[in-house]
Amino acid sequence: MNLALDSANNLGQYTTAGKILFQINEQLPVDLQLFLEEIDDPKDAKSFILNNQSALKYAIREYRERLMLA
User: Cα separation of 9 and 33, whole Å?
Assistant: First the structure.
């Protein structure tokens, strides 16, 4: 997941990163959950990822920790 965010920044693949993040959408906090419309529109995907990058990385880290404890 973090790799998806890094590739979004480095390669401009925000739509792809959004689709990858959507796979764990229900695990993200409510304010970070994605809508399909946001993923399909490259401008919306870019805006969402850039505006929430640090919060998304933190949520991904917490998700991974929960998986390890399960």
Answer: 19
Q: Are 44 and 35 in contact (CB under 8 A)?
A: no
Whether 61 and 25 have beta carbons less than 8 Å apart is answered as no
φ, ψ of residue 28 to 5 degrees: the values are -80, 155
Structural domain containing residue 50: 2-69
Average pLDDT of adjacent 10-residue blocks, the chain of 70 residues: 76 85 88 85 90 90 88
Contact 49, 18 (CB under 8 A): yes
| Count of C-beta atoms within a 10 Å radius of residue 10 | 8
CA distances from 46 to 3, 17, 60 (A): 15, 9, 18
Q: Model pTM?
A: 0.79
Domain count, the chain: 1
